[in-house]
């Protein structure tokens, strides 16, 4: 069997990791049972570029159990868990081509490798695989593909608009059960986890400034309050600012918040929302963390320029001495604090994303003859099915509508 | 001056009510200053069918201050505050045709009355005025109209689809600053207020069952928790149910919740979500309230059928003795508990709706030559302006984007 | 049968009120069953001065069911519910001497009246009955008495110290199940209820200033936060201030809070915590309410002196126009807002106080031969029994210690 | 200079750690300035047995700055941070005798070592130093000592009762600013931190069972709720159980909670509160953690006996396969999860304990001639001063009483 991983002897440790993840991914496991009993993917080849983690293992093991042959490369040179990769090869017969610390060249080689097997379906996390296919593997007869990230979706939509997209793609990122829970619940918790691991500060009594009141910001703000912080929200949208205010948070511009915050967390998707000038207004000891996707939200470059001295205090905590004598502490160099300083999303959150992935692949396999070469949202009924299976896996039953109610609601479609 | 109100001598009391309302409606007052200094509605006649309350007074006084002539009838035979009506006539020169307890005939006569003045713009709350115009006053040359409610909007959309709509209408109901705050913040608080006034029960320690996790349900659930209740959410949508669960609420079907709840509040927009059978499962002493728009959510008819005895315990609290010997308590006969047992939305909430009304009228006046005979949502910039003015009126400044940020965000339109 | 009430024909309405109260007083009802089956108070005469409310009715009906003869006078000329008084006479054979609006002379006459019957036990709410006995009825051979309030306890402790106390008294006020739940849970909710009934303002988005972070202040602060307010705590004790801060509230002195608050609620037990000078710093529209026992916390006298104009806007809401042109709104003239503008404690809270009363009377009857003429706290096991019965009445079972655990905990008495 | 540490070359790393701690210990730093400017401890020798951490470094540096000579040994063979020890020796001239991994013999040798210098004051954490003095160093003329822990205080109180205590001791553990913040705020946060580091589970949506509703349990319960868990409290005290219920938590005995919990956290101070039998009732995947002082709360021994298989899944997470086929996960072998799997109390919390230590030493030095050979609580004014300095260090000003208020409150000492 073809594969390329670091060390097969790590397989037993990897197996335990996968079991731990699957223990917390009931929706995906229930989809596995369903797809597996019908052998829904029998004879299907799937090539996937994903972070090779224990949660991804749960996904590809599901696809495999449904009958597919799986070829898996890593979507980031640093994110592969070598023990998990080994377990997938040794115990599951999955063709993994990934290892932690692979070079840029290795990364592309591995992507090329998994495309050699003429997949029917491709899965991507970031859009590099889709781009490579459009460039060099235009002859593969693909049923379709999926894309996990916003960034990837933007690239694919551009292709769609230019009329050059070669196959239908389902944008898993846009599923309600993905973005809402990933952002609010997943990042909401893991950002705080990252801050605590990096600093071991006490949240209670601190003034925390959350920049951006989108889904990520909301999750962080509510959890910081739940741990005893006084929370200030900084927002550019008056609508979101008004929501924050009505949710009980203080709202002000950064120039004012900068002077009173103890802890700053950015989640805007925008650039330099904490600027050099803001930093110079801050109190001695202020802590800066980013929970947004890209490391552009805090002006790290500007901060480095003005710093008189920089030193590492703890892992992921760097002290910047400012010209005014104050010290501020930047976590994880302004990168996503939950990924850098903690462990990213818990398995429970990935359960939702990856259930959407598995059912989206199923949708493609079933409907590839009829769907067009476009970028599709995850169909609402898949989204609802994922939520339903998640609830069921957590032991939760929900209400069902009576026939009378179905009739009634059809007539009056007003929102409560 | 033409008018028809109950008693002009109530004008001084009405004036105080209006002042109290306006004290809590800073966004509308700031719009008043703006429209008034430009005399934006000079020469414009506006006929409006609205609940004649102190908050509506603040709205029509704004339109008047901007130069309009106002003809106002009540949108419900019972909702007119006679002192407010008197003050509008006496101190503001507004042509009011409304009194509390007017008959059905009076109600229609008053609507006919205000249409005699050939208005340029009409404002409605429920759609009866729009219907009357389409039936009997087709010759009025209207710039356009506004509609406050979902019900009215549904009727107007039906007309639009059939191609019979005579003038453009702005659906104020669909503004973000209306539905979100009305529902979550306004009803969230006032429903609890109504329950307390009706029953004087202690919320802390109770098991509260919130049926429906839309915006109203969310508002109620979070406030009940804030007062110490254990809250169970009943939902038919797995997506909303999963959100409720991740927000920390228990989730179960009504058949299970019925057995353990002390207090039940419905907010689904659907019929019989608490059925006779559910009621028979309930504990002795269970309390039932409705916070949804129509009094269909609790099966009151069924309850009355099975009741062995019914008696009024307190205003808005009726005891139903069931065949099984238990007693349950229905509040306000299953009608909207916040309107029936408390005072409906606080002025602060109406400030948002009515600011949208005022700016929508302004939009119609300015753009009536170019807009089509369709039902429009409130333009986003009006919605944002309302939020902005509300924040400003509350003394809140928000962040503004730098040029660099505006450029950056244009390229990457990803949601956080 | 001797009695003196306003109108016996109100008895049926009173009976319904009592039933409604008893529905929410499961602990007391369970004590009733217990004392009643043993006829614990057979032959005992009890004279009580209490607010003649539906909850007090539940208490005296319990004492009566246990075999006692009851003579009841009101503890406040305004607090008697005449329908409840009538029901107690007509349906329960309780000798009530009380009516709403009785004069000061009536009040004392009624107290004298109930002492004529040579009671074995007396119950008081404020200490006037105890004082009268010590002055004029020194020959009554009392087993003992109870006292509901702090004020009364202070008076009795003074007597005890001077060695003049004639009989043992149990200070019900000091029971954990009384002061903690009365204050934090009861006043916490009912103060907000009173503010909403008086003003109908929206809590969400407001800056609420809670003055005093004792049990009452904590209850109010947490519930205001639960309804969406930003809450500031003003405290003189650094220990309590630090707790407030760690609970996530902002903390500052009144001179600073005065400038930014929208709503002020006092609960300190101290005088003039909101002074004239503070009021002059406030924003236009500020609202002032008191939740402390006495109406001394807001300097109402000073406010009246500086006011240029005073007018009633709504029941319990008075507008004061200040020399600086601002208007502030004082609720219920600075008296306890939950009693004045709402209905005081819910029955669920009185259930705890009055269960302590009933069991304290039982304790006196059982132990009167052995206890001394002192002021006693409610014995811990009564306090715990009340809590246990309350939990049971709410359907809650708690954990029990194993023998092993009882042994272990004896050795190591450390607090978690 | 005498000392014994592992490696002086670690001093620079240690210095950074100490700086990081002191950045978050403003109360202690302010006490340092005060004691240092008066050279309050000039000529005083202090021998201390404490965990040699960065926070302890902040304490002993304070004592040193006030003029004392310091001799420091570790209070636990594993808790010494060697870099901090090195920094104290190299940069502060403190005589440290401690290293990580010292043997039991080393531990006692080091304690003997620091007693050779005939200290005037001793500080202890657990009582071993006090015991050693009473056994072997009875001739040292001590002004007095302090004790940090409950365990130590129990041992000293036993000595006091037997009349054998040789010098006065201040029980720092009993300070309000110690036990309340240590337990509720410190352990409340760090227990959750430990659970997340050990497991990386998602809190939101989980059923968390908190066993014990003392200060630790309250802190944990409120923070788990703040992160989206449904929280059940298990309690043996009806008073605490009723509080938990009124705080909005569900309450039930362990036999019922065992069946529905996803995560269990113990904080009772009692033995086997989660027994073998309870564990056999649990769902597959249940997670067990202890936040109480001793590792007796979960019956680990019983669990090991019944387990069919035990394996380590992640650091501090061990899987136990039960006879019924279910798997449960025990964190940190049932030891204090915040110390074992996270970093114990944040510096902000130790700031309070150690400020009490520093001021207690000051109290002993100032009053040693007048105080008796007893165990004293920290005087209230020290407790209040610590709170005040903490608030000040956090930039918080509190209210001060006027003379009028001081007079008023003297007369009426009633609690709100």
UniProtKB/TrEMBL annotation, chains A, B, C, D:
Record-linked Pfam families: AdoHcyase (PF05221), AdoHcyase_NAD (PF00670)
The record's family statement is: Belongs to the adenosylhomocysteinase family.
Q: Tell me, in a sentence or two, what this protein's role is.
A: May play a key role in the regulation of the intracellular concentration of adenosylhomocysteine.
User: What biological-process GO terms show up in the record?
Assistant: L-homocysteine biosynthetic process; one-carbon metabolic process; S-adenosylmethionine cycle
Organism superkingdom = Archaea
Its localization reads: Cytoplasm
**Keyword Membrane among record annotations:** no
Task: Cite the annotated pathway.
Answer: Amino-acid biosynthesis; L-homocysteine biosynthesis; L-homocysteine from S-adenosyl-L-homocysteine: step 1/1
Q: What is its EC number?
A: 3.13.2.1
> Any idea where the S-adenosyl-L-homocysteine hydrolase NAD binding domain is?
183-344
Q: Which Gene3D superfamilies match?
A: Adenosylhomocysteinase-like (3.40.50.1480), NAD(P)-binding Rossmann-like Domain (3.40.50.720)
**What name does this protein carry?**
Adenosylhomocysteinase
Q: In which residues is NAD(+) bound?
A: 149-151, 183, 212-219, 235, 270, 291-293, 338, 345
Alphabetic keyword roster? Cytoplasm, Hydrolase, NAD, One-carbon metabolism
User: Which top class of enzyme applies to this chain?
Assistant: hydrolase
Q: At which positions is substrate bound? A: 53, 125, 148, 178, 182
Could you tell me which SMART domains the record lists for this protein?
Answer: AdoHcyase (SM00996), AdoHcyase_NAD (SM00997)
GO terms assigned for molecular function: adenosylhomocysteinase activity
User: What's in the GO CC field?
Assistant: cytosol
Q: Which cofactor does it need?
A: NAD(+)
| Reactions that this protein is recorded to catalyse | S-adenosyl-L-homocysteine + H2O = L-homocysteine + adenosine
Q: Kindly state what the record says about how the cofactor is bound.
A: Binds 1 NAD(+) per subunit.
Question: Which gene name belongs to this protein?
Answer: ahcY
